[in-house]
Amino acid sequence: MTPxxxxxxxxFDAAAEAKxxxxxxxxxxxxxxxxxxxxxxxxxxxxxxxxxxxxxxxxEAEIERHVSDAMQRWPLLGVTVxxxxxxxxxxxxxMMVATASSHREAAFAAAEFLMDYLKTRxxxxxxxxxxxxxxxxxxxxxxxxxxxxxxxxxxxxxVK
Length: 160
Hints:
Elements: E1 4-8, H1 14-22, E2 30-37, E3 41-42, E4 45-46, E5 49-54, H2 58-73, E6 76-84, E7 86-88, E8 93-101, H3 104-120, E9 124-130, E10 133-136, H4 141-148
Parallel strand pairs: 1-6
Antiparallel strand pairs: 2-8, 3-4, 5-7, 5-9, 6-8, 9-10
Helix pairs in contact: 2-3, 3-4
């Protein structure tokens, strides 16, 4: 299985990407997808846009490394990770993780693992634009704690 990993400025079609993983296949018993969407507000403050920057080359390599780790931990039949960069308006898709497996447990765990690592380890930087001011988003301890729980887990045993 060759995973799909893309970093792009253009929008993507999440439904079409998910269909590529499972369409016409009878070995896939579970397809888990997560699409991150730009919110229009943060609390009571409206958000005008997000700007995402990345370290080209390094970002792809880091995502590939974590996808490879997920494929070793769980019996996956397909993985797609797409992450956008540039200015993103509220309501627009930011990123997508999709995992396919014969069983739901592996698909859910692998998707969650990849999301936690993308949030904390992938070299992306997010700037929030609100009411004419721009601020960089700082790392959160809760995200680091979520990613840290995977360090204690070894390879997932295949579901029978």
